[in-house]
Amino acid sequence: MQPAPRESTNLERPDPPAESTLSMPPFITPSRFEAPPTPAGNRKGASPPSAAARATMVRVRTN
Description:
Blueprint: H1 3-12, H2 15-34, H3 37-43, H4 47-62
Helix pairs in contact: 3-4
């Protein structure tokens, strides 16, 4: 019974850091994607950024 909890503790230690590392990139990715589409769509208004701009507009309206 004692060896079981000890193994779980060792597995729990590497789990929390792994989750924090995975949560870090996602937060930086959306902020960078939302920032460029706004100025590019307003300045050039090309067809490619329009899709990203529309997604940003929908997100802003939902908020």
